[in-house]
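Input set for joint prediction.
Command: fold jointly, output tokens.
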Amino acid sequence: MSATNVALAVITPEDLLKRWQGHRGLTRRVIEAFPEKELFEFSLGGMRTFAGLALEVSGIATGIDGLAYGKWQPWEEIMAKEATIKTKAELLAFWDEITEKINREWPAMTVERFNVTENSWGFYQGPVISILNYFIDNEIHHRGQGYVYLRTLGIEPPAFYEH
Amino acid sequence: MSATNVALAVITPEDLLKRWQGHRGLTRRVIEAFPEKELFEFSLGGMRTFAGLALEVSGIATGIDGLAYGKWQPWEEIMAKEATIKTKAELLAFWDEITEKINREWPAMTVERFNVTENSWGFYQGPVISILNYFIDNEIHHRGQGYVYLRTLGIEPPAFYEH
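tokens >
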């Protein structure tokens, strides 16, 4: 793309990295806001704990290898690794590993790559941009649920608009 | 942009309309899933009712005039209009009006327009694309909270991935 057309893009790969990592930073602060015990034990309406929701979100984020290279690690393997995570410190360390991995692999996320069709764990087939949007939407959705858990526990969550 | 460059765009204005309206369609189904009384009376953790959250989301969506033309109706006026909405049928009718308005105004949402800087109600200043992303993120966030309300009420919410 010429410089002119780059300037006219609605959204660039760099914007998308900033957007995703911005959301991941906020979700990390929501994890931190939970007391250790409630993170792994509290829930409402028969739903998963916030640790459970955050592990789903972090497992999905390991899909950066799928987005960037079409390598989708079997979901069962990701879940098996995550089943070993039992403390807030371990969850945050896993979270931070993925954050660094996303930054490291991002150069592979070219405009062309965003237009390639992938199948994310057999769940959804579409262009990489749609899969990434789904990853981010799913994170916002579950994080919003964490806000209700925190409020119900009498804990003030981090401001939504501070990424 | 040439045909080649359009094909190489990460995301197009048409994609964004489909994305926003897809989310709005799902949120509408979440509103519908609430019994009338609980929609306006039930909440958790001292939060707003789901009607309250949905009215915030729909008020923000009237900002299509801001996104498209830089016309930001004063927030107090929007809130005053919304204060008259007292039933699920009225809320859904208001929702549908905005859905149609967004479709009607979308031709003004050109690639150039997405790059223009706007100030949304003095709350956030940035390019139109960032403001729209915030609108959508805020909707997903509050809708996720509605899922917790529904589950706590023993009601199965619509599937998250069905837009």
